[in-house]
Backbone:
């Protein structure tokens, strides 16, 4: 179970002059002060001497990885009230805000900064974590020249901001919403749910949205995180194919696999998986903090499949063909060889098709500010 603390931080002496100039700040930073920062130690890595911290800073969800010497990490994990914390928020020239640093301080003057910090939201029903993905433009398709015909031509695509699931939906999360576990590799709560069709994923999404609507972020105002957009049937959905590839490639970077070009570091495939699925998050994350987007299970996306869609794809927020017979899957599985795990690789199946290598992850749209 996660350990939770309420930490009060008083940095008024350092920050008062900056606060007086806050309205005029441009590309500057200011600390969070005199506020309660709610936080949890979400996951402890004794072998890596670090743990994941989930914090809420001024209603903005923050996920950070903190490296602490092993003896201290164990002590603080068991006694989180020994720590005090502070955070630094950045303001851009456009007025947008983002977390820049999350610091934990021990009673002996020891201080630990985050290795990586991302904006996150957490579903209160399933505990599912979704990370904020800043939109942008990228070259979508077979940028390495070793792909299939349906990955061509390489074309520019621009994506709006959105949230993407840190992990594939797990068997525990699925069972908590649906009541039963369809997976072939069952009895592994933290393994991705599989043997689910695209239609099954839609049913899960509808039930999840009915039980757990997105947090009520406002359109601007006091909240620092981008507000979630609730659609007609709720906020959680499958990502589009373009969103999926943009996120898999760490925000559109030149990456053969999700997280880099070394497949053994980032993905489970036929030669290293033992021909089975594995608990999510055991391989390295990509540049956005997302795990297992290459390998483990194929992931359904929202789009219909069209082999020639890239020849006519719109530039801005493509959503795939209006109709079709098969839906797109991405990322490949523990049963495939590395060529299928490439971030640009495309696959397809009928919406009702269930196999033990098919799963999914969720996304959420961001409202217009």
Residues:
């Amino acid at each position: 179970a996660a350990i939770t603390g309420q930490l009060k931080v008083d940095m008024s002496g350092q920050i008062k002059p900056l606060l007086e100039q806050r309205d005029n700040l441009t590309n500057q930073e200011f600390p969070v002060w005199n506020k309660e920062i709610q936080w949890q130690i979400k996951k402890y890595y004794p072998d890596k001497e670090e743990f994941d911290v989930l914090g809420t800073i001024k209603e903005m969800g923050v996920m950070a990885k903190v490296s602490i010497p092993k003896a201290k990490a164990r002590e603080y994990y068991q006694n989180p009230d020994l720590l005090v914390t502070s955070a630094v928020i950045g303001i851009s020239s456009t007025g947008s805000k983002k977390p820049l640093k999350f610091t934990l301080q021990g009673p002996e003057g020891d201080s630990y900064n985050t290795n990586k910090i991302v904006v996150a939201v957490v579903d209160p029903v399933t505990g599912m974590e979704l990370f904020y993905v800043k939109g942008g433009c990228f070259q979508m398709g077979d940028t390495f020249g070793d792909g299939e015909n349906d990955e061509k031509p390489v074309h520019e695509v621009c994506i709006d901001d959105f949230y993407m699931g840190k992990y594939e939906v797990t068997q525990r999360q699925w069972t908590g919403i649906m009541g039963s576990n369809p997976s072939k590799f069952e009895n592994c709560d933290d393994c991705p749910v599989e043997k689910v069709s695209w239609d099954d994923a839609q049913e899960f999404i509808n039930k999840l949205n009915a039980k757990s609507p997105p947090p009520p972020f406002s359109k601007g105002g006091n909240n620092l995180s981008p507000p979630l957009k609730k659609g007609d049937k709720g906020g959680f959905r499958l990502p589009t194919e373009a969103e999926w590839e943009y996120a898999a490639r760490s925000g559109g970077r030149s990456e053969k696999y999700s997280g880099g070009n070394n497949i053994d570091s980032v993905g489970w495939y036929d030669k290293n998986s033992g021909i089975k699925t594995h608990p999510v998050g055991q391989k390295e994350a990509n540049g956005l903090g997302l795990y297992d987007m290459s390998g483990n299970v194929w992931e359904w996306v929202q789009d219909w499949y069209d082999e020639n869609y890239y020849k006519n794809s719109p530039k801005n927020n493509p959503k795939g063909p209006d109709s079709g017979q098969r839906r797109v899957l991405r990322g490949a599985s523990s049963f495939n060889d590395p060529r299928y795990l490439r971030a640009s690789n495309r696959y397809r199946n009928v919406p009702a098709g269930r196999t033990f290598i098919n799963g999914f992850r969720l996304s959420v749209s961001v409202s217009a500010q």
Observations:
- The radius of gyration is 21 Å.
